[in-house]
Design a protein that fits this description.
46% of the residues lie in helices and 13% in strands.
């Protein structure tokens, strides 16, 4: 049930493994704000896991139900991680810092083996702890009938290379596992004769379903993958991590540039009046929780100890609270980010050149 007088928003959750716990915190803070009402949710990979938990919680118990659903989900992820996570606390604290997990033997071994062998060789029985977690936390048969909010989950079709959007009515354990299917860890997930990998490759997260099916034009993106980094990576793991970050952000940046282009057409009256009604003026809001994750190495995306996850949750809550203090009044009126300044090609270089003059 919609909150009277509340501002409607759409939520778009990025993926990023255990770093998705920061989205848990952001969502938790947004859900406790009575001034907001969630229309639709889009998610990919870990973002799809969070999105499904929020949608199910809203369906069963409103905003408080959604907060409890997220708490239950991440508690179960932490419990499962004690058994399945390749990352363990470093046994030599005198030689390495507590967060220097990239040097941990278990992660190095995991990284090497998964580069040399496919999951069809390493994991022939397709063991996936996420499957059991989801079945324990979410009644997908009930969620598929949800009318409280719309759910859009992205997965990458392995054969066509195109993004596939699963809607609320399609919600299932398989759908969420497909969206979170890292191809070096798990076999492609088959759904109705098609095979899917992680949705982050082609939409992290997707925005276009909001244009056609959401009631509100306000989209709030919760970033997890850093868009920019000041330092050039030099180690093999850091280079691969940066390649993945760029890949997983590329589809989002393309959509944002398209939105920016349409906005400029509308703002400059370059569209004939008879066509203006066909274009929707989308308002973009950006919660840059990715900036709080820049100093975490790639191995921490597999870290599931409770202290680490709840620490990220608190970071997310703090970031969301600061964003609401600064930008809440813009919801329903205007974008709170300058898309051209943030995402246009070459903008960073041009700014640097101007500063040097």
């Amino acid at each position: 049930m919609a909150k009277e007088g509340a501002k409607k928003i759409n939520l778009a959750f990025q993926g990023g493994g255990s770093h998705g716990a920061v989205t848990w915190g952001v969502a938790d803070r947004l859900l406790e704000d009575d001034r907001l009402d969630i229309d639709s949710i889009s998610g990919s990979s870990a973002g799809a896991v969070n999105a499904a938990a929020v949608a199910y919680g809203l369906h069963k118990g409103g905003c408080e139900g959604a907060r409890q659903s997220l708490d239950h989900l991440w508690s179960r992820i932490s419990e499962a991680g004690e058994i399945y996570s390749p990352v363990r606390a470093n046994p030599f604290p005198m030689n390495f810092g507590p967060d220097d997990l990239v040097n941990a033997f278990t992660y190095q071994m995991f990284d090497t083996v998964t580069r040399a062998f496919s999951p069809y060789q390493l994991n022939p029985f397709d063991i996936n702890p996420l499957r059991e977690i989801l079945e324990d936390c979410i009644d997908f048969k009930s969620l598929s009938k949800c009318t409280t909010t719309k759910l859009f989950i992205a997965a990458t079709n392995v054969r066509s290379g195109k993004v596939h959007i699963f809607h609320t009515r399609d919600a299932s354990t398989k759908v969420v596992c497909a969206s979170a299917c890292l191809p070096f860890l798990f076999k492609a997930v088959e759904i109705k004769g098609e095979h899917y990998w992680d949705g982050g490759y082609m939409g992290n997260p997707v925005l276009f379903p909001f244009f056609y099916e959401a009631q509100t034009s306000d989209i709030m993106i919760v970033h997890v993958n850093p868009i920019e980094r000041d330092e050039v990576p030099v180690t093999a793991s850091d280079i691969m991590n940066r390649v993945n970050e760029i890949s997983f952000n590329s589809s989002l940046l393309r959509e944002l540039r398209a939105i920016s282009f349409v906005q400029r057409l509308l703002d400059n009256d370059w569209i004939k009046d008879e066509y203006r009604d066909r274009l929707r003026n989308i308002r973009i809001h950006s919660i840059r929780s990715d900036q709080a994750l820049e100093n975490f190495d790639v191995s921490t995306k597999f870290r599931t100890d409770w202290a680490f996850l709840t620490g990220l949750k608190q970071k997310g809550r703090d970031i969301a609270a600061a964003w609401l203090d600064e930008h809440f009044d813009k919801i329903g009126k205007e974008s709170s980010v300058d898309l051209h300044a943030m995402f246009a090609t070459g903008e960073r270089e041009n700014t640097a050149e101007k500063s040097a003059v």
